[in-house]
Fold each of these.
Amino acid sequence: MRRALLVALALAASAARADGGTISGKVDATPPKYLADTVVYLKSVPGTHPPRTHEMDQRGLKFVPAVLVVAQGDTVKFLNHDNVAHNVYSPDGEAYNLGSFKQNEAASYTFKKAGVYTQLCSIHPEMLAYIFVGQNPYAAAVDAKGHYVIKDVPPGTYQLAVWNAAKLKAPDKGVTVAAGKTVQENIAIKR
C-alpha cells in the first residue's frame, strides 16, 4: 500500500511538471559588458508556490552567484567559505543587515516583498551582488552568453520582461505558453 502511494505521488508530480511549458532564448546587450547582470522574468503569474531555500556564497571576496533569482516568500541562506569574516546587508526594499559571520558560518533571510536587493558587505566594500525577488518563481538569470531558460510555466499568456543592473531596457513581450511546449523568445536590451 505504501509503495503504491509513493508511486502515485511520483506520477502526480511528474504529470504536474509535464503540464508546464518552457520559455527560452538569448539576450543581447548593447553595450555587451552589462549582459551578466540580467534577469528575464514573467510579470504577474497567478497562483502560489511553495517557498524554497536558495544559497548565496561568499568566496574569493565575491558573492557567488553575482545574480540570484528567487521568488517572494523564498529564503536565501548566505554562506561564508572565505577565510575572513563577512557581513551581508541590503539598503533596498525591506533593508536588512545580517551582521558579521566567520568562515563556515551562515545567516538566512526570507524575502517578503518582490524587488531587486543589492547585496553588500560592510567589511569589503568591493563586494556586490543582486538578488532578484520575483512575484512568482518564473524567472532566470542569463548565463555568460546571454542564454536563459524558464521552466514549468503554467499554460497561459503572460508579459515577459527584463531587469538589468545597468538599467539596459527592452519593451515587455507578450508570450503564450502551451503545456509541454517550448517558446523561443530572444531579447535585445540597450540604453
Amino acid sequence: MHDLRAIRENPAAFDAGLKKRGLNPQSGEILALDEHRRALQTDLQDLQNRRNAASKEIGSAKKAGDNARAEALMAEVAALKNNLQSLEAEEATEAESLDALLMALPNLPADDVPVGADETANIEQRKVGTPRSFSFAAKEHDALGGVLMDFDAAAKLSGARFVVLKGALARLERALAAFMLDLHTGEFGYQEVVPPLLVRDEALLGTAQLPKFREEQFGTTDGYWLIPTSEVSLTNLVRESILDEDKLPLRLTAWTPCFRREAGAAGRDTRGMIRQHQFSKVELVSITRPEDGPAEHERMTSCAETVLQRLGLPYRVMLLSTGDMGFSARKTYDLEVWLPGQNAYREISSCSWCGEFQARRMGARIRVKDGKGTRFVHTLNGSGLAVGRTLIAILENYQQSDGSIALPDVLKPYMGGVDRIETGR
C-alpha cells in the first residue's frame, strides 16, 4: 500500500518509481480520486454540522411556540439525512475505487535496484563455492530419485506437479528442514513458529498476495486460503498491532507446506520437483524499525547463505532488477544454487526488503520511543531455504558414479548416522 500523503507531496517521484517497474504514471488518477473523496468528506462534515445545528434549533423553536419554524426545521433535517446517506454512499464508492487502485500497484524500488524488464537485467553480486567436476555425466534429480521419488503415484492421487517422497528421501527432506530450523533458531536468533496453514482474505491482502494474485492461490469454499508461503502467517502476526520499539527486531521462522497454483508458469519446469503445487519451505520473516530495514536485509540474506555454505553447495547471489522483483519488494536478493544436472544456477531463496508497503496494508506500527505518535514497521521475508529445491541440490551435487547420493557431514546426525542414500534407480 502506498502513502497518499507522499504521492500528494511528490507525484513526480511516485510516477518515476512506477516507471522503473515498467508501469505508466498513476499519480494523476490517484490524486483526482483522492481530491474528489476529500471534497465529499468536507461536504459530509458541513452537512453533519448543519443537521446538528438544525436539530438544536428545533428545540428552541418549540420552546418559543414557533411551530411553523419547528416544522420547517424538521423538514430540513429530514432532507439533510437523505443527502448525508447519498453522500456517504458516494464517498464509500470513491474510497473503494482509490483503495483498489492503490492495492493494484507494486512497491516502489529502492534507489540501488537495477532497472530492467526481466531477469536479464539482474546483477550478480558474488559467487560462493566451486562447482564440482564429475568423471561421469551428471544427471538431473528426477533421474536420480529412483523408486524413492514417485511422480506416478502422486499423479494418481493429485495430478501433475506433485511428488511422493519415500524412505530415505522423505527422511532427507525432514532432515534438511530440521537442520535449517536449528541453524536459524540456534545461531541467528529467529523464533520458531508453527503457524496456521489456512488464512482469511485479510492475511493475503496484508502481504499483497490479494487481490492481484488471486488466481495463483488455492482457496476453500468457506472463505479460507491455503498459504502460498508462511510469510503470510508470520508477517500477519503483527497485523493491527502497535509494537514497542525496544522489542524490535522480531525474527520469526517456520517450516510449513506451501501451496501455489503456479498459474503464471504454464509449461515451465513441468518435469521433476522444481515447480510444484505443494512444496515445503523454511521461511524467515523480520519486523524492524524503518532505519534498520536495509541492514536487516543484508543479515537475512547472509543467514540464508549460511545454509548453503554449511551444506557445501555452490551458489551465487543476484540482485534482482525492477522487472524481476516481486510485487511487495523494494529490493530483493535471489540465491541461486548450482545444479550440475541442469548445468545451471537455479533460484533456491529470495530475500526481500518490503519497507512499509505490507505494514500499511496490515496496520502494523511502532510506538515511538520517547516521543509522540506511531510509525509503520518495515517487513522483510526470505526463504531459508526452499526445502524441496535444497533436496534437489543435494541429489545433483552429491551424486556418485554408482547412482548413490553422498550426504554432507552436517546432515548425518539428522539421518541417523547414514552417510549415503541408495535410491534404487
Amino acid sequence: MSLRRLTIVVLVSVCSFVAYATAQKNELSGLVGRTFVSDQVITGSTVSDNKLRFGNGLSLEVNYARHILNGDLFSLALEVPIVFNPDEDLHAALPSRIPESYRSFFVTPAARLNVFPAAAVSPWVSFGGGFGHFSNSATLLFGGHNPGPTGTTTGVLQAGVGLDVSLFHNFSLRGEARDFWSGTPQLDVTTRKSREHNLLVGGGVVWHF
C-alpha cells in the first residue's frame, strides 16, 4: 500500500473514531410497571384447584445505558436494567408452608437495538442475561412463621421490546415489556416447572445526557 493510500486510510479511521466517540451518549431511566407470572400446577395435589397463583406485583426499574453506535437507521446501546418487585403475592388452595409473598430482584446487562433513533418515535429490542434473587416473606400463606428457605439466587435471561417517544429537550417517554426467564423460587411446594417467565410491563421517563 502506498504512503498516500495509507495516509487516507489513517485519516478516515481517525475521523470515524472521533465521530463515533462524539456520538456516544448516556441514558438514565426510571420506570414503574407490573410483573406477571403465569400459574403453576402443583404436583401431588389432592384438591381440585391444584394451581399456585401469583399476584401482579408492582415493580420498579432503573436502567443505565451507554450508546456505542449511532446512525440514522439504528443505534446500539449497552444497558443495565435493574428491576425490583417488592411484593409478589402467592395464592393456593392447598394448605402448606407456602410463604404469603416474596420479593424479586433482577440485574441483566443487555444490548439494545433502536430503530430510527433520531425520530420522534423509536422502537427497540433488547437481549441480555444476568442474575436474579427471590426473598420469601417471613409469614406463611395460611399463617405462622416461615421455617423454610428464605432466599433463592438464579441465572436469568432477559428479552424485551419497547418504544421511545421524544418528549422535550433531553427527555423521552418509554413503554416496554421485558421477560425475565429465571429459575423458580423455593416456595416449599413442587410444581411442574423448573424455570418461569417474569413478564414486566411498564413505562416511565428517560433522561439523555
